[in-house]
């Protein structure tokens, strides 16, 4: 019998547990201690490898100070954020540790001009990288003759 794979719902709930835990600055070990389980079990929940029971999810929600529904927000079919949409992009962004570090540091900046300059720098950098990648792709694409071009 092949090992069972994580369901999309289990992965989504796990991702949301990790997102909230990271946003509040709590380690897997600390959350595990408060639940009376190991950090390895928290890892399994966050990966969606192990399902979180309803009672355990309610306890996690209490510890992380969110309603249980938080863990289902954005789940396909639940009317929430979808990947590629504005809210879905935010959730994807916030699921990365670097993103959370960036947001925390950004929020300590009080000068609006400095904040705007950082946003502009980030946008310009992303555009330059995207443009360079497109130029590389164009340079390696086969060149067509005038007869092959579409009018």
Description of the molecule:
Helix content is 62%, strand content 0%. With 151 residues, the protein is an all-alpha fold. The chain has a domain at 8-81: 434 Repressor (Amino-terminal Domain). The longest helix is centred in the last third of the chain and has 29 residues, at 112-140. The protein is extended and about 60 Å long. The relative contact order is 0.09.
In short:
The protein is mostly helical.
Question: If helices are DSSP runs of H or I spanning 4 or more residues, what is the number of helices?
Answer: 7
Distance between the termini: 57 Å
Which shape, going by the Cα principal axes? Answer: extended
- How does the major sheet shape up? none
Task: Report the CATH C-level class of the domain at 8-81.
Answer: Mainly Alpha
CATH-derived architecture of the domain at 8-81? Orthogonal Bundle
Question: Spans of 5+ residues with little confidence (pLDDT < 50)?
Answer: none
- Could you tell me the CATH topology label of the domain at 8-81: 434 Repressor (Amino-terminal Domain)
Q: By helix and strand content, what is the structural category?
A: mainly alpha
Radius of gyration: 21 Å
Assembly of the depicted chains: single chain
Please provide the count of β strands: 0
Helix content: 55-70%
Helix and strand pattern: HHHHHHH
Q: State the fourth-level CATH superfamily of the domain at 8-81.
A: lambda repressor-like DNA-binding domains
Strand content: under 5%
Mean pLDDT: 83
């Amino acid at each position: 019998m092949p090992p069972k794979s994580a369901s999309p719902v289990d992965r989504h709930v796990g991702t949301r547990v990790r997102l909230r835990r990271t946003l509040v600055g709590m380690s897997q070990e600390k959350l595990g201690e408060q639940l009376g389980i190991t950090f390895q079990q928290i890892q399994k929940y966050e990966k969606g490898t192990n399902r979180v029971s309803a009672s355990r999810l309610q306890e996690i929600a209490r510890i992380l100070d969110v309603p249980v529904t938080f863990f289902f927000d954005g789940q396909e079919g639940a009317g929430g954020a979808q990947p590629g949409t504005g809210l879905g992009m935010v959730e994807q962004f916030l699921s990365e540790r670097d993103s959370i570090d960036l947001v925390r540091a950004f929020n300590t900046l009080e000068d609006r001009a400095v904040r705007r300059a950082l946003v502009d720098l980030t946008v310009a950098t992303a555009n330059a990288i995207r443009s360079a990648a497109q130029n590389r792709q164009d340079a390696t694409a086969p060149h067509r003759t005038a007869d092959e071009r579409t009018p």
